[in-house]
Amino acid sequence: MKKWIFSLALVFSISVTDSPIQNMIAHDHDVPPQRLSADDHDYLSPHAVNSGYLSIKGMQLTGFNKEGLDKLHYSFSVLEQVVNSEEFKDRVINFKNSKGERAFASNNGLSNEEIYEIFMEGRETLQPDTAGEMNFYLKLYNKSWSKVIGYTTPDTNVINLNWKFFKNFKPHEVASNLAHEWTHKIGFGHRSAKEHDSAPYAIGYIVGDMAEKISQAKKLH
Ligand SMILES: [Zn+2]
């Protein structure tokens, strides 16, 4: 249980404690998760895997002001666009870890495509009857001295987000963090905040990378 608690936060804080959080996030996004290309022999065609459709639902959003709620809802819409895309499917099922294998770390013995299908099922461990939905129970808290962006524990649906970081996050960073935390809600963990190949981290990075491009494209139009 402990290993889940500090979630996405520590990876941004361990190495460069004095830097602003944005710099650390930018650093992480310099290296987007690797994936197999269609030329690789073990590339899996997205057509071979069922998609499903996930709706994002804000079930309980506690502690957000108007501005925060607006950002959250924008992040939800970008997240929904990302997870239901063919590119997301391709990037998850063809995710390549740092050893060059088509596998996530701490994968509970499951293949990439099995993890993708579980993700797209939308059945949280504690709320298995809501298929097709990413249900978010979010609670904002404020600890100005803390380096934790957000955390959750396996015994609750609630994801806690630190206002200190949330207030400065761009929507794609919120979407990335939400994807990371929600991947915990469907039963996947990581051994440490440095396990970038784990499903929560890698999927969080994929979502962040794609959500940033979508946000930029929206601004241009
Ligand atoms: Zn985590």
Walk me through the topology.
Layout: H1 2-5, H2 9-13, H3 21-29, E1 34-35, E2 55-62, H4 66-83, H5 86-93, E3 95-96, H6 112-121, E4 133-141, E5 150-152, E6 158-162, H7 163-166, H8 171-185, H9 199-220
Helix pairs in contact: 4-8, 4-9, 8-9
The structure holds zinc ion (ZN).
Mean pLDDT: 86
Measured as a percent range, the helix fraction is: 40-55%
Number of helices: 9
Radius of gyration: 16 Å
Low-confidence stretches: 1-29
Strand content: 5-15%
Task: Just give the CATH class.
Answer: Alpha Beta
Count of distinct strands: 6
Distance between the first and last residues' Cα: 44 Å
Major beta sheet, specifics? 4 strands, mixed
Give the oligomeric state of the chains in this entry, treating copies of one chain as homo and distinct chains as hetero: single chain
According to CATH, the fold-level topology is: Collagenase (Catalytic Domain)
Architecture, CATH level 2? 3-Layer(aba) Sandwich
Overall body shape: globular
Q: Which ligands occur here?
A: zinc ion
Structural class designation = alpha/beta
Q: In words, what does this structure look like?
A:
The chain is of the alpha/beta class. The protein has one domain (2-220): Collagenase (Catalytic Domain), CATH 3.40.390. Helices cover 43% and strands 13% of the residues. The chain contains 9 helices and 6 strands. It has helices spanning 2-5, 9-13, 21-29, 66-83, 86-93, 112-121, 163-166, 171-185, 199-220, and strands at residues 34-35, 55-62, 95-96, 133-141, 150-152, 158-162. It has a 4-stranded mixed beta sheet with strand order 2-4-6-5. A hairpin with a 5-residue loop joins strand 5 (150-152) and strand 6 (158-162). The chain is globular and about 50 Å long. It starts with a helix and ends with a helix. Residues 1-29 have low confidence and may be disordered. Bound molecules: zinc ion (ZN). Residues 4, 7-8, 180, 184, 190, 200 line the site of zinc ion. Zinc ion (ZN) is lined by residues 4, 7-8, 180, 184, 190, 200.
